[in-house]
Design brief:
single chain, 77 residues, alpha+beta, Alpha-Beta Plaits, 3-stranded antiparallel β-sheet, 2 helices, 3 strands, 18% strand
């Protein structure tokens, strides 16, 4: 059985999560706990930090389970 990627969006960014490749390192939750939360469902609060901080954290994901797409064309990083 394939588990579908999870998707979390706001007006500026969409973050996707692939649980099949996540190594559960907790890097995201330890470093940006306002967005990536261990004990709350949904575990991603896409409005918990600025788009820039979310992008920085997603880029640190050791497994590549987290990815992002910008939905605002004028925001370029």
């Amino acid at each position: 059985m394939k588990i579908n990627d999870k998707e979390f969006s706001n007006r500026a960014i969409t973050v996707t999560y692939d649980p099949c490749i996540c190594t559960q390192s907790d890097t995201c939750a330890n470093q940006l706990s306002n967005v990536f939360r261990n004990s709350v469902i949904p575990w991603v609060d896409i409005n918990g930090a600025s788009t820039e901080k979310i992008i920085e954290q997603v880029k640190k994901c050791p497994s590549g389970a987290l990815k992002y797409n910008l939905t605002k064309k004028e925001l370029v990083l």
